[in-house]
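Worked problem 6 (solution included).
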Amino acid sequence: MALSGKQKAAMLLMSLDTLTAIELLKGLDVDEIQEIAIEIAKIDASEQRDVKEQAKVAREFCNTLQEEQSQKFNVKAFLNEMLVNVLDKEKAEQIQSQVKKATEQKDLFLDIRQASTDELVLALDGEHPQTIAVVLSELPPKKSQEVLSLLNEEARLKAVCKMTNPEQMGSGVRQRMASTITKRLQSFKGETLVERPEQTLRKLALVLSGLEKDIRDPMLDEIGKNDEETAAMVKRLMITWEDITSVADRSLQEALRSVDSGKLALSLYGADEDIVQKIRSNISDRAVSMLDEEISLMQEPLEKEVLNAREEVVRPLREANEEGKLRVTGR
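Solution. The predicted structure is:
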């Protein structure tokens, strides 16, 4: 998500020593200083400072930033000195009160960020997609990705759609969401996820998919003799939507030729950027133009429609895999 001007200003100031930051702020009015001060407090309270992004912002400002800072940035000391030196005492105290309020609001997610991945998945089970989306947005990117990958497919898709099209909400709503999940986390403290049957079958499917067809098929037949439904599930799990990035370009190109552009556009709604780019780079320029046209005309789809469309895209890949013609470069 692109940074706002206030966020960039906050990151820049957090990269500088206090005296230099104060000099820069002297040219701003009181309201602007207050907004930037609150952004600094939010960044610090969220514990999500991105050093690379911070350096990038600094380079945009002056094209010269030391690779490492000689001293750790102290937010409280910086804010106090900055406000007292730039503003009169009364206005400084007023802004400090606003900063404290913003920090307290952010701190509501502190326990959530500190929870383990398994605890978060358990706590989010059955929650509204909007709540899941808000929680994921408050987590560091890596943990957010881990939690998202462990949610069931329907919940994952709905949450991603909410993150793609965020709704406007008041701070009170966010506080209630944070409070609800924090309370649920307390009941799951120390618990770990039990592997779902589908996860176990997925592991088996990946093992079998790496075997030659003449070795793999008799094994699948044997599984089918005991349980046809399980055998069908294993076949399906050999190739999933998430595997598209691992399919060799030529195999993907051949499979995508049979997919309708409208279905393809639906399947890409809310999809991971890696998958979107993989598909776009393996269809013709004409097909890309048709895809873009379909996307521009498309209304917000139902989750079921997106899931069905993705099954349509994966179907020819599964057929090629059953015939022993699909090439997978690694998963």
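Discussion: The domain at 197-322 is CATH 1.10.220.30 (Annexin V; domain 1).
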